């Protein structure tokens, strides 16, 4: 019996599929412009997120490195100081994860440009960000799901627990951003492979 | 212009959608039985993967922790020794990532049960595993995509670079495994939330 | 020419040597009692620190795992929720590292017992901790060195930059704590080796 | 009673103190020349070590970043490919840690220059390295301690368990290397502080 494996995968796939149509083109364009600009100017990108959102952020950061960005991850060894020319990408479904909000406030103080990936533009993280990209989901902190997510799922309670829908959608969205950046920056898969770690764990 | 964001997301979603039908029920059932058994016996689960596959593994490990498993991640601080009662979940699209194969061989020597999540059952990792769960994808090491993936994508070259299709599909698949385990172990979302880190980064 | 290698090593060694005499026996005894008690009750220990202090914390956490503690590190994958029976070990030379103070405040809210390892008992971290263990050093945030450190070094500016003296002293101190715990808990090196990761990176 | 805390700290301090005299000047000079050269040519440095040796490596890598090196850590998110112009610093007391030997072999294949920090020049890691810096210690894999360490400790069994003496000595040694590099590269503490993460965990 692997019924729930298939049903859950189907739910996640249908959720992401509907999000594709509902993406806010202006928000995503702004994000892409800031990232493209950071690449061309050699600015630093600092990616941050807690828990599984942090892992999604790392998966994105790894691809930005493959693309040739000066990208770093909050909490890793070689992350340097950032300043006003630099960009923070902060990922939090609820927009309320305490340490991410605190870190984003610190980034705000040094005048970095903050891009928030969140389901809640009106959250603490959303309000302090320069650019918000709304990715619907269900927060893990509140029992309810946001309005947008409910529209997508209909009346049913989702099978996927906690922040799963947000996290998986954010990963697929950010993988879409990577391909858009490849085209904007004229990078091919061969370029990415050349920078991909040849000794890795 | 965010055309490639949408197109890539659509490609990933369609890919995962087709994988749902093609999942090998026997392989997945075996994996679930081993995991359920490990939970009931209090055995350790050691999750390993390199690069983005390692991040997918961590996202899965975090949910296993929420479910109450004794789960650890290769390379993190508090990972203990494992032995013959324990289970390794090794994730590698190509099944050839050097350090993962070496680590899986070491696990084999101490007689742990090895579950491989890979696109290539006939790879070094696939061959040494006790259970192989095939997740199609495109390897990052070879320019070609595997036969199964080609069937799914048709004749088109995928937009998503390197291991993206494998990694995103593996994440969604493992999130399906989590929901199946919730049902088998009688766990609700409330149980998961109770173990979810309340101080997190 | 490796003159500065030797001189710096000598400086660090002399610094730690003087700290041994100046350790506050009451503070250290309290810390040991709390840790011993946590072990016997099966409470969780959550270790946290930023930058190199965080690495010192991880080195300590790894030994606590070898000793059989339920120990976790802030920011790693499988770190669960903590509560009032649990213990936080927070390491910060200055006692002002923003994210560590924020995390310790969150731990305070859930009523965990907080042990601070810091040069500044009167810092934000020191003030909110239940137990403070003073380890002298030189903070990386202020150009001056604390009074205690100055007494040890005399009038000379230290060679070792930023938080080096604090971090190295904290590591050696915590390794002393490990041996004290081995004796209190009746653990031999053989016991530690049995839990030491057999597949590690 | 904190008797063992003090005794162990004293043992570690005396051990490191004797190592200072016994440092092999030629080995250390070679290491410094390779690192200085890598800095001036903008080559990459890849630091690797398992367990507590890996944490010592990270503490060193963080300082190299503060100094302006292109430095990376095996297993972290943004670690790129390396090639023949690049340098690997591999840390392993026993010189036999499986995954580190495998990773060093992979680095050898791409013709990177390999610096091994180990107690055993004649170990698998020592033999494949281009430069070996001997740091005495006691391995965690064998019950005995190496000849050099025994000379230092005399006939007594050390209090500090497993690899502690090697790891703590390696940290202090590498902090000495950092100060030597500061002088060679004309860097002041102000330069280091400027690159030190301003948002950190």
Task: Give your account of this protein's structure.
4 copies of one chain form a homotetramer. Chain A is of the alpha/beta class and 201 residues long. Chain A has a single domain (23-186), classed as Rossmann fold (3-Layer(aba) Sandwich), CATH 3.40.50. In chain A, 53% of the residues lie in helices and 12% in strands. Chain A contains 8 helices and 5 strands. Chain A has a 5-stranded parallel beta sheet, sandwiched between helices. Chain A starts with a helix and ends in a 6-residue tail after the last helix. Chains B and C meet through α3, β2 and α4 of B and α3, β2 and α4 of C.
The CATH topology of chain A is what?
A: Rossmann fold
Cα Rg of chain A: 17 Å
Number of DSSP helical runs of chain A = 8
Spatial ordering of strands, largest sheet of chain A: 2-1-3-4-5
Q: How can the largest sheet of chain A be summarized?
A: 5 strands, parallel
Provide the descriptors you would attach to this structure in a database record:
homotetramer, 201 residues, alpha/beta, Rossmann fold, five-stranded parallel sheet
């Amino acid at each position: 019996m692997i019924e729930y494996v298939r049903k859950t995968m189907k739910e996640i796939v249908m959720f992401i599929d509907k999000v594709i149509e509902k993406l806010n083109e202006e928000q995503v364009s702004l994000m892409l412009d800031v990232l493209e600009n950071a690449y061309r100017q050699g600015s630093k990108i600092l990616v941050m997120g807690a828990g599984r959102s942090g892992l999604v952020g790392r998966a994105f950061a790894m691809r930005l490195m493959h693309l040739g960005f000066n990208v770093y991850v909050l909490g890793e060894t070689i992350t340097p100081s950032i300043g006003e020319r630099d960009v923070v990408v902060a990922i939090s479904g609820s927009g309320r994860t305490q340490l991410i909000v605190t870190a984003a406030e610190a980034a705000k103080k040094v005048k970095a440009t903050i891009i928030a990936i969140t389901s809640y533009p009106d959250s603490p993280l959303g309000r302090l960000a320069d650019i918000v990209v709304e990715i619907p989901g269900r927060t893990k902190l509140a029992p309810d799901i946001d309005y947008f997510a409910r529209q997508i799922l209909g009346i049913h309670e989702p099978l996927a627990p906690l922040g799963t829908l947000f996290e998986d959608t954010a990963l697929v969205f950010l993988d879409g951003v990577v391909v858009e950046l490849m085209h904007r920056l004229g990078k091919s898969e061969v370029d990415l492979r050349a920078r991909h770690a040849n000794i890795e764990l």
